[in-house]
Amino acid sequence: MAKRIQFSRHGGPEVLEYLDYQPAEPGPQEVRVRNRAIGLNFIDTYYRSGLYAPPALPSGLGTEGAGEVEAVGSEVTGFAVGDRVAYATGPLGAYSELHVLPASHLVKLPDAIDFEQAAAVMLKGLTVQYLLRQTYEVQPGQTILWHAAAGGVGLLACQWARALGVKLIGTVSSPQKAALAKANGAWATIDYSREDVPARVLELTEGAKCPVVYDSVGKDTWEISLDCVAPRGLLVSFGNASGPVSGVNLAVLAQKGSLYVTRPTLFGYANSQERLQTMADELFGLIAAGKIQVEIGRRYPLADAAKAQEALSSRQTTGSTVLLP
Ligand SMILES: NC(=O)c1ccc[n+]([C@@H]2O[C@H](COP(=O)([O-])OP(=O)(O)OC[C@H]3O[C@@H](n4cnc5c(N)ncnc54)[C@H](OP(=O)(O)O)[C@@H]3O)[C@@H](O)[C@H]2O)c1
């Protein structure tokens, strides 16, 4: 028997319940992980609210965690009981003391990375890996725009961009968040709650705009983002913090300068154990080299997952938040 967070209907954080739960025995290619730390991610709020559909209700929640392998299925190779592991994808249910998932979603943790750091960085760090290194391969000296730069994904992006010699302009909603983004490597910040973002981007880039804009805010920033992309540049729309982008008129891409748009997900990039491991190796390498520091802004007991989600949705958090079972 274990404890987990579960929800039986969609709604606000109040639908999350902390309940007893009997995890299944691992199938032939599955493992059971005893979670030591669990990652809080904005995507968890989309499943809870119903913006994204879970396979069935009642459902567990969360896809990111770190801990020890406690049991392995008969066909699992490469992982053994006692291994220190982390994961960022796979079935919902990471908000739990025990999580059963396919071994193909696991990576082994280097000794230098503790469980809290791993839970804080796996999903968000792998996301930054694919966005900066695969969706668009940013080059030293380029100036890029990244929305919500003081958030979990955002602070990692600031540091990764600095490590690559890329000038990241980060949007934020307060002076405190601006200072944090700067301290983590943002080249410049814009307070999008009060400043004219396209005008500031024009100024900062001396009229050139950005070859790539990374937008996870969605509805509220879509139009702004389009105005910050250089001709034939790329708008990467990768989240819905303010609500989903809908009703896009393709002609706008022509009007704004023959732009490209993509709507990627981590699951579309880390879609094999080999790719996942390659991406994680790059992330862990930057952490080991001291180029990325994992900023854990808050820690909550697993039982308080609803409070943690409330804080995330109301823009009170900075950096990563972890839940502790
Ligand atoms: N597609 C993918 O593969 C992928 C993977 C991971 C994450 N994501 C997306 O990346 C984003 C960041 O995720 P995260 O977990 O690191 O969260 P986060 O950035 O720590 O939190 C979201 C931030 O968005 C900003 N925001 C702007 N408008 C908002 C609104 N109306 N309500 C709430 N927040 C608003 C807030 O920063 P300010 O106060 O500074 O505005 C807030 O702190 C999310 O949109 C998530 O869905 C996508």
TrEMBL record:
SMART domains: PKS_ER (SM00829). One of its GO terms (molecular function) is zinc ion binding. GO terms for cellular component: cytosol. Keywords: NADP, Oxidoreductase. The keyword Lipid metabolism does not apply. The keyword Oxidoreductase applies. Residues 11-323 form the Enoyl reductase (ER) domain. It holds the Pfam family ADH_zinc_N. It catalyses: 2 a quinone + NADPH + H(+) = 2 a 1,4-benzosemiquinone + NADP(+). Its EC number is 1.6.5.5. CDD domains: QOR2. Belongs to the zinc-containing alcohol dehydrogenase family. Quinone oxidoreductase subfamily. This is NADPH:quinone reductase.
